[in-house]
Amino acid sequence: xxxxxxxxxxxxxxxxxxxxxxxxxxxxxxxxxxxxxxxxxxxxxxxxxxxxxxxxxxxxxxxxxxxxxxxxxxxxxxxxxxxxxxxxxxxxxxxxxxxxxxxxxxxxxxxxxxxxxxxxxxxxxxxxxxxxxxxxxxxxxxxxxxxxxxxxxxxxxxxxxxxxxxxxxxxxxxxxxxxxxxxxxxxxxxxxxxxxxxxxxxxxxxxxxxxxxxxxxxxxxxxxxxxxxxxxxxxxxxxxxxxxxxxxxxxxxxxxxxxxxxxxxxxxxxxxxxxxxxxxxxxxxxxxxxxxxxxxxxxxxxxxxxxxxxxxxxxxxxxxxxxxxxxxxxxxxxxxxxxxxxxxxxxxxxxxxxxxxxxxxxxxxxxxxxxxxxxxxxxxxxxxxxxxxxxxxxxxxxxxxxxxxxxxxxxxxxxxxxxxxxxxxxxxxxxxxxxxxxxxxxxxxxxxxxxxxxxxxxxxx
Length: 461
Known about the structure:
The chain is of the alpha/beta class. It has 18 helices and 14 strands. It has helices at residues 67-73, 77-101, 106-109, 143-147, 185-196, 212-216, 225-231, 242-250, 273-285, 299-304, 315-320, 322-328, 340-368, 373-380, 388-399, 408-424, 430-444, 457-460, and strands at 11-14, 22-26, 41-46, 52-56, 60-62, 178-181, 201-204, 220-221, 234-237, 264-267, 289-292, 295-296, 307-313, 329-334.
């Protein structure tokens, strides 16, 4: 296969994993990002997203020669928005070039024009890597610029397999008025995707300033949780823990004050089954309809619309939320009676939290015995344990970058709740109990608001 000769600033079509070819630009990788070894690749920033990745040269094609070909095979709305962003970028670049042309002296005119700056180096593609510190280009407007929205994929509310409707950009938004309470790491991405897919959304957050961005993008503002529920047909909430979930419903100007017969309330927070049972009972006692729908994923997956939704409770509410779940996730599961989704979510997070603690333990043991941590990661990424999760979390640790994608304090909370659930079922959870102690140590080292991968620091202090 002929080598693709590209330079920093070149526009390309890049193929990443199972996703269709996507327009992007070759950029310089961050200076502190370790270069993968092996196959040749370039570091690419994808348009219409906040995604950066090492892409193999055989998965790259120059933008202009292949434009018509790619447009024919990709018809989705999000894809077209990405292409529009490229064309807007080209127009702005051309305008700047023309405006500065008269100012160039003869020497400057001999130099190559922007955006071609320097030669890119070739490297191996182990996985998609992100530079959280890099600010998006000005063409990535509007909300995708400020919220790191990745416009590649979404999914279905059908049990088992993901649907193609969201991927093709053909979601038909419900005509029901949607409310959303809580704009944290998960909630922000969810609301952004609901708005993008055309839903009418009213938002509320305890810190009101967080609503401003969404108001600019077309959301409506609710002054209290009760007001949001009163204004909307279906209200979602996504908050940090059982206490916050209860306070939101039962507190002053809370959800319960806005519930009327037929109003739907969807609890997306990761809480214990007992909290779900309590909330379900109080909502239905007022004639409301209740569904729990906690989500498996992270901030990145929330932004990408690639969450996995676990639902239980009122099946008719689950069906009414079909377009919403398609906008925010790649698939969803209906698990029966209320409480089952909370149980399943705690089990999933117990496994994930314990695994993360083991990964951190392995990396520190490698260092203590004189082994290369990078080599350990390279081996893991070529074996049966290879996954995006392993690669991303290990990269966090190797780079010392613990910007939260899933708060450490929240995974420790989930471990604690899972252990308690095991106690209730008289079932042993020794691995979770051991991992929980490591996370508690990390919290004592002021790592609560860092990413869960910061559990690594519990082993080195």
